[in-house]
Fold each of these.
Amino acid sequence: MSWHQLELTLRPEQLEATSALLFELGCAGIEEAVAPSELRSSWEPAVEGAPTQARVLRASFADPDRGAVDAALAATRPLTSAWSELPDVDWSEAWKAQHPPVQLTPRLVVAPPWNAPAGALVIEPGQGFGTGQHPTTGMVARALEELAPGAATLLDVGCGSGVLALAGARLGLRARGVDVQAEAVAEARANAERNGLAVSFSTTPLAELTVGAELVLANVHAEVLVALALDLIRLSERWLVLGGVLADREAQVTRAFGALEPLAREVEGRWVCLCYRRRVR
């Protein structure tokens, strides 16, 4: 038997119908992930200029009629489509190998349930909402670990799978997380239960939050950070940590957060993490 993989890049609204169609066409399994240029978070407010969170579907077929599958999918108009032949391997084990433990900070390891060392934060890889592998997650986690001793409360904006909020709870903070996607919130709640941590997760829009936190984290796109700047500043009682900033967008972000005092800056590859605090009057 010959196995083949069809990789599709899709808009979020295309996922459900396309997945159903793939199974109707004989797909044996589907892996979903965030498109490579995207971050772990699914935070996408309805603001002009906010980026679209493209998704990748990888569908496995046994001896498919590629032409027939392509013809059936033509009406869905995927952003990209590519076939590849798969080697004969145990795919369940191969998928697991893509999710090794991640040492986010000297004190924090994030790991999947099947390969979790003692003391690790256990995160189930699921709908592409983040398992700690993106470099920005590590940068924000290091800032969190440094600032946590001086804070009591934490708000994680665009929480995804909840990695950062759960890390804050591990450090003793009263943590909350918000995300616009209900699927992300459900995943974060499951991860909180899995780790025995009491963290509140919701889809409450940022503009509707009336209670801030001493430490606010936002690991999302630069364009979204700028769009949310006023609310992020309003809700940050002491410190604000911004991740997800590409180096060529840093100036745009720093202008938007000029009301706060720059505290620290970390660069890893093409990504920048910015830390701010409220100005002392």
Amino acid sequence: MPSICPRIFLPFRRAPVNLLGLLRLCLLLLLPCAAHGTSLSVHDGAGRYPLAGFVDVLEDPDGRLTLEDVRQPSAQFRPTRRGDDMSFGYRHSTYWLRLVLTLPPGGSREHWSLELAYPTLDSVNFYRMLPGGDYQMTETGDTLPFGSRRVDHRNYVFPVDLSGANAGSQVFYLRIRSAGSLTFPLTLWQDSAFAEASQRSYAALSLYFGAFAAMALYNLMLYFSLRDRVFLVYVTFVASMALGLASQYGLAFQFLWPDWPALANVAYPGGFALAGLFGVLFTRRFLDVPTHLPRFDKVLLVLALSFAINVALPWFEYQWSAIWISLTAVTFCPLALGAGVWFVRRAHHGARYYLAAWGLLLVFTAAIALRNMGWMPSNFITLNGMQIGSALEMMLLSFALAHRYNKLRLEKDLAQQEALQSKQRMVDTLKESEQLLEQRVMERTAELEAANAKLEEQQKLLREMAHHDPLTGLANRLLLDIRLEHAMQVAKRHNTTLALLLLDLDGFKPVNDTYGHGVGDELLMELAQRMQTIVRQTDTVARLGGDEFIILLESVASAEAVMLVAEKLIAALRVPMTVSSGVEVRVGASIGLTLMTPNDMDREAIIHRADAAMYDAKAAGGNQARFRAG
């Protein structure tokens, strides 16, 4: 239940207020503001704000700090960077997060909510500022009943009041403690945008778990029909994986046991421990490991025992259990992949499907385990890897089981047929089989060659897509980083100078809003071609996203020469363009440029200078270039 924190400043009892008391009050009000890090300017119509880069973090190893302590100017908050995953692995520390929001005059006319999209955190206390300067606390977490949440949602959602009554700057605090992995993906949403995103999310998860249920029921019917235990093991694996994933995404706590927080707290690691146990058992039975690799089978039995222990361990020691599950999963990944390769090389039926299915699942599982340990950053892959990998794994393993069924049936039919054949017929059949085998080998060889050629073509296309912007064909941030690193090495070796131009389009958003994204995309493609015609072929034009570009010029003579290139770019971009719909549109550009000499090869510093110079150009009215020296 939310509670009101004690007041920081008591009202003065004496009137009139003396000058010294007024001065002290002003200082106390100003000091916390001066201590805050980067603030986020909130504007209506934005929809959502990912908060990485706008949140300050304070680690409290002993968990003794209070709100009063962290509000002091001496509190050692450290800022986060844009794109920072705010993942700290498994730790006993308590973490404080601070968010400063700057509101427009008169406040916001929209309703806003703060989302913490990591449902497995044990304790989350949210402190929001009231108009009088006091703070109100909302306490929640998966160690409390689901009803403790102010918003009925699988993630932690906290409504925030950004109306005119709270205009100006507001400071919010979060106190987070958890025995599991500490990851804090924070987003500020307008309620309408959040409702739409939540609806899509719940719909996608419903389809996803519906596929789980369909595959489990299908293979359960096959088990009752064939009485082959490998199908039953697969069904238990699917059910365990569904339990772990439903707990990871907060659905199990919301819909299955909202009043049993203890069960919700252990279902996440316990479900994945069960999935690991039945995954090991499936590997043993499907590949017949005890027969072909008896020593390796003993290793799998040890891993199965480790997973089995972890099913019960979360009830006694959650954090060590979560770490143990992650380490066991990371150990099982290379072993399972190695077994798959071994059986594929020995032409074991269904091994190709097994290798493809478990290879994808186990790679994504290892990525999640490494993220839980704090050894990999949080991103779309590491946060949703289990969902992606398990979906692919379900489909491929179903194909593998179907292949197994067809193989067994074919072997039975062949055995019956061979029992009825005469000796002469058997000789003729063997000759025909030899010819058929040669033909199949040739066909299979041709298929493999065609598949390899197609795979090489796809890999080439993937490399191209990984390094270029799909809309404009320009280099993306990854390729820019590679070329910038190479250019810095060449500049140091040959004692030359580099130039970096950060370009932001002026007037693009009105065009995009007025004529639609189709016109905006046409405009971006045309402007990309114009920029490439201005610079040299050895230079790099990259798109950072939206209407922001970076141009890397190598071996430049002087700042004046670079400024001349910038002016040419501005002139080229200002030329009106007629889009396919017949509408004539015009945009401009603000360019910030700087130089990088062999003695000044700090990548972050040069990007910061170019960004600052670009904002200088924006502040001067746009459609111009500004230079900042190192």
